[in-house]
Structure formats: structure tokens, C-alpha cells
Amino acid sequence: MNEMDIQTVTLERQGAVLVATVDNPPVNALSHSVRAGLVDAVEALESDPQAKALVIVCAGRTFIAGADIREFNKPLKEPRLGVLIERLDRCEKPVIAAMHGTALGGGLEIALACSYRVALESARFGLPEVKLGLLPGSGGIVRLPRLIGVEEALAMISQGNQVDAEHALETGLLDEVMADDLRAGALAFAERIVAEGGAIRRTSDLPVPTIEPGFLDAKRAEFAKKFKGLDAPQIAVDLVEMMSTTPFQEAAAREYATCKELIASPQSQALRHLFAAERAALKIDGVPAEVEPREIRTVAVAGPGVMGRGIAICFLNAGYPVVLLGKDEENLSKGVGGIRKILESGVKRGRMTQEAADEQMSHLTPTLDYADLGAVDLVVEAVTEDLATKKDVFARLDAALPDRAIIATNTSFLDIEALASSVTRPENVAGMHFFNPANVMKLLENVRAGRTAPDVLATITSVGKKIGKVPVMVGRSEGFVANRMLSKRSREAQFLLEDGATPQQIDKVLSGFGFPIGPFALADLAGMDVMAAARKARLAGMTPREQACDIVDKLAAAGRLGQKTGAGYYLYGDDRKPQPDPAVDELLAAHRAERGLPQREITDEEILERCLYAMVNEAAKIIDEGAAARPGDIDVIWTNGFGWPTHLGGPMFWANRIGLPNVKAALEKYSALVGEEYFRPANLIESLVAEGRGFYD
Ligand code: 3H9
Questions:
Q1: Most buried by CB count within 10 Å: which residue of 151, 223, 231, 644?
Q2: Known catalytic residue: 677?
């Protein structure tokens, strides 16, 4: 072990069994000291004639959760994980992995190289490397299919699926499951193995599984669709194929070589950046780690409209009792019916059992009476997006709620300070901005108002995590972060139509970049009436060119409301596939003629740069204003909110990779072309370029 390492593996012998306990908080990652400590443990087992078996167990909340991701950016220090795995595999005495929590990545690879695997019944197992743009590089791919078969193994390797202990026992991944006291159970298991002769079992000695013809090609096609743009899932299929035809040692070497290449790949760097950024986003400026979140036992949702229903479901799914506050009988019963319908459709699709849906419905208390909110700890307000209406609801909530209850508004555009001013305890007011459909979308923009108390900020963050969202704290800003950036992309998409591009060209460029859907196909899905209403609400704040760019209004006036009327920017047949429509070309030509705008050829490069640099520049302004704390927060928001391709790491990571001097030069070019008010480089970009720095330096 290295002199500088803190000891993270302790060894003790109990009778004939050595027990190595890994204690490397928070998740027992395989840092250098753990690897070295476990190699020492194997050596101790081999050199001590009294020791007949070794149990590897972990302290704290989990078994080893994988390689230490932070070490990937540093030079590798021996012993590397492969050396430890090799030692375990060759060991002449039985080694038993005793697992609890989540045995992930390199942690599971260690277990696979042991003779036996036992676990608590609450434990989970997975190879999540693929989510980091990596693949198991220390025997996961060459061992797991031998142990549990190709189909099960490929699902875990290529998708990062986790399995529970019951399933793992069934498939042969585990030898024994225990209800409690893992250490004692594992010791008893080891003693039994020793008493029965101390048999060694090497996964590497198991026969190579057979693969059904066509199975791997079907998986390649499935993953190309499911993981658009991502390399690792495809390479996983290649490696599984390779391991099935290659001798073990050679296959293991090729597996490691591929993993090493992937560690250096741009996709993995982007995905690892997002892993760290998501966790950094949970650390809130001005909220020290010791600030305790308030206890949330009961939640209310005010406003049972489309958003309110989705929000209520998020809390019901997470086990919170929910009081649903409506404004009249009709509004309330529609809301309750809508919630039931969504839960029922979850049952139909096999996502939950009927009993679970019934149980969730039984935790929903519909009411019209504010007096029923007397025991509520958090209310999410999701009433009509109108300041006067919301202020009125806020005042009533203020009177009805207990003193420490938090009021979180789901407003998208209204001024949260104006809402905070309408209550007697503005320190309890914040925003929880969900995205439609609220029960599906991962992103949660939590909004800090000027006077929000630190423990309220801590509470909405921890509650956000508990309901399965990715919460990011943002500040006061029109449209907050996600929508404010989106509005700049929408503006440029509209201007590009005026300049001569077609909806299909722009959609193709942006979906080719990796967005799940282009902006015009998306608008057709949302409905042109909705788009026109949103435009009307924001018209006063627009520039003269934006005000005059009324293509949305013209489409809505022509009854082209999108998919629901069979025509919008595109035409739709029964298959709902968008088809270009000459009538839209005519409408655009007439619009350009009316506005006196000449049509020109627009390159795909110009489309991409104008749409995306407009967003990056706006994000830099948002950071300048303090409405987002860091560039990584913007990346988390856009990859979780609007489908920015994760393998490109988010808008700021993407721009940073292009280089801020190049971004600035492009902004200046488009500023000259489109207008200074649209593309003037943000101060942050100007100053970083002047200092020779990037967004993350
Ligand atoms: C691998 O194993 C490669 C090998 O096959 C081959 C190599 C050749 N390393 O998520 P949390 C930190 S690749 C370092 O908030 P939770 C995390 O940053 C690895 N640090 O907790 C955070 O720190 P901070 C394959 C790690 O309870 C803290 O732990 N393994 C690592 O919600 C708490 O994390 C994975 O991909 C790590 N591996 O969830 C597992 N993992 O507080 C990735 C976590 O300073 N990890 N940290 O921000 C996870 O999925 C979740 O962290 C886990 C716990 C489920 C374990």
C-alpha cells in the first residue's frame, strides 16, 4: 500500500475465516487504497495456513459501488483493478463477496471473480458503466454471461440495468440471500464452505454460453434506436459477441483495452461530467451542508389542472399523502379523474400493480376547503398562470397553512417576488417548476426567491430527489433557465424560416444533432393555439422583429393547430408522421414577401450555430445575472429537461469543447448578420475569453 493512502481495508481472522472490511465512504469506491488493501487481503489469505477462506464485506451504506470515477482523469496507480481481479480469480482458497446496498461496476466485477456471492435481500446489482460512456473493463463482460446467460448479462452490460437480490438468486448471480446481519451470515456461509472441503469455483472456468442466431443483430438495431448517438451500448454487443468466441484470457485483455479507450473518449468525458454536475447541482450556494431540511409528511397540490395532476402523481408515487385543492366541484372531480386515469394507464402498461394504484388513490384527499390544509407541510401551487389568481391563492394558503409550511409555486414565467410579497412568511416561499408531463419529466427547476430561508431551499432539494426528480436550484429570471434558453432557440428557428430555411430542414439539423424531436414537430405536438397564446403573453417584451415574426399566429389563424388538426408546420396522416406541406411553403413565401425579407440558401451549419449559440449565450447571461449558479447546472437542466444529447454533455460543455474564442467569434458573426440585440456576446464569455479560460476553469 502507498504511504500516503489512508487505510480503507481492515483485516481480521475469525477462526478459519479472514474477513476484509472495506471502509471508504461514501460509496466504498475502488480507490487505490482499496485495491491495494484487497490485494493484501488475498496475499494474507494465501500466506496464512490457518486461514481457509476470505469474506469481503463493506462498512457503511453499500458494497463497493465501482471504480473511483475521480481517478479516471489521473494517471493510473498500480495495482489496477484487473490485477486484483486476477488475484481473486487465481486464489487457491475460496473468497466470498458479502454484499449490501448497491454492488456496482468494478464492485460487482470483484464479486464475479470470487468463488461465492452472498447478499442481503435488499441489495441490488448492476454494471452501470455504460451510463458513463464506459463498459466493464475488469472482467464484467467476460464473466457475467458465463454465470447468468447472454440475454440477462447483455441487459445489464448494455443498459446499466440493476437487478434485485431475489432475481440475482434466480439467475445464479448469487449463491445465498440473507434477511439481516450480513457479516454473521457470510461468516457462517464461509465456515460451511470450509467444512465441506473449501471448494473453489471460478467463473472463468465456466463454459461460454451459446448465443441464438440473430439475437445480437436484433439488439444492435434495438439499441441504435433506444440509445441514439451513444457508442457504448453498441460496443457492448460487440464485446459480448467477442467473448463468446475468444479464449478467456485474450477476451479479458480485449475487454480491458476497450474500456481504456472508452475512458479517454469524448462521450465518456461528457457523461462523467454530467454525473458530477448532477451531484454538484445539489450543493446549494448559501446553504451549508449542516442545514437540515424541514420534515415533509403531507403535501398539498393547489390546482388540479394538467400540471397539478402530474405533480400530485409524483408525490403519490413517492409515498406522500396528497391533499388536492380545487376551485370548484367540476374542476376538482376532473382533476381526481385525471389522476386515476394516469395511474390506471400505468397499470395497463405494467408499470404498477392495481393494488399499488388503488393504494395511491387512497392517499389522495380532494378538497375545496382551505381549512383542510391545516396539517400540510408543503404545498405546490399549480393554479392558472395569472398573477392576480396566484396572489389570491397565495393569500388564502398563507392564512390556512401551519407557520412552517412551505409554499412552492409551479409558475413558469411569473415573478416569484410578487408572489412572495403576498404572504406574511415570504421566507417559506420558493418555486418548484415541473415540466410537462410532470410525472414523467426528470427536470425540476427549484427557484430561490429573494427571502427564501436556507432550510426551505434544502427541503425542496431533498424532496425533489425523493420524488425521483433531478432538482437544480435557479434564481429569479423570466422563464427561469430552461424556458428562457428555449425561447432564444425558438426565436432563431423562426428567424431562420424568415431567412429562407424550411421547418423540415431545421428539424432535421436539430434532430440530427441529437435532440429527440425538432422544434417544429414539437410545436405541432404542443398545438399552435398554445404556441400562439404563449407568444401573445410575451409580445410586449419582444423586439420589433420578433413581434413582426408572426408565423405562429398565421398558422393558428389558418386552423393549422398541429397534430390535433392534422396540419401545422407539417401535414399528418393516420400514422402521425410529419410530412412537408407545400401550403406551408406558400404561407412562408407570403410572409417573407409581406415583410420584404429576401429568401436565401441557409446552410445546416448556420442553422445549428444560430439555434445553439443563441442558447449558450443566453445561458452565459443567466450565469452573469446569478440566476444559475454554475455552467454544469445549465448542462443538467438541458439534458434532463429538453433532451440535449447526454453524450455531448449539455450546452455549456459542448460550447466549451468547441472553445470559447470560437464561440465568441461565431456570436460576433451572427450579431453582424441578425442584429446586435440578438447575438452580442455575454459578459461572461467576453471575460473568460480575455482571461484565456473556459466555462469550467
Ligand atoms: C467502473 O467501475 C469501471 C470498471 O468496470 C472498470 C475500470 C477499469 N466514484 O450518487 P450519490 C460519490 S466505473 C467516486 O449522491 P446515492 C458521488 O459523487 C464506475 N465517487 O449517492 C457523491 O459525492 P459527493 C461504475 C462516487 O446514495 C457521493 O459518492 N459505478 C462514485 O444517491 C454520493 O453519491 C458507477 O457508475 C464512484 N464510482 O447513490 C456507480 N459513485 O457527495 C455510480 C458515487 O461529493 N454511483 N460517488 O457529490 C451511483 O450510481 C450512486 O452514487 C450510488 C449511490 C447508487 C452508488
A1: 644
A2: no
User: Could you read off the pLDDT of 498-543 as tens digits, one per residue?
Assistant: 999 999 999 999 999 999 999 999 999 999 999 999 899 889 999 9
Query: Is 128 touching ligand 1 by the criterion CB < 6 Å?
Result: yes
Could you tell me if the CB of 65 is within 6 A of ligand 1?
Answer: yes
> Cell numbers at residue 596, please?
420584404
Residue 255 beta carbon below 6 angstroms from any ligand 1 atom: no
H/E run at residue 98: strand 95-99
Write out pLDDT tens, residues 275-309.
999 999 999 999 999 999 999 999 999 999 999 99
Per CATH, the number for 605-691 is 1.10.1040.10
Name the residue with the closest Cα to ligand 1, atom 39. Answer: 27
Q: Which mutation among 69, 70, 466 tests ligand 1's pocket best, with the greatest number of atoms within 8 A of CB? A: 69
CATH topology of domain 3-263: 2-enoyl-CoA Hydratase; Chain A, domain 1 (3.90.226)
User: Reduced to 3 states, what is the DSSP secondary structure of residue 247?
Assistant: coil
Strands (E), 148-305: 162-164, 176-178, 299-302
Q: Which homologous superfamily does the CATH classification assign to the domain defined by 299-474?
A: NAD(P)-binding Rossmann-like Domain (3.40.50.720)
Check if 501-505+515-599 and 605-691 are the same fold.
yes
Q: Which of 3, 12, 92, 109 is catalytic?
A: 109
The answer to whether residue 92 is catalytic is: no
Strand order in the sheet with 17-22: 9-14, 17-22, 53-58, 95-99, 116-120, 176-178
CA of 469 to the centre of ligand 1 (A): 18
CATH class of 501-505+515-599: mainly alpha
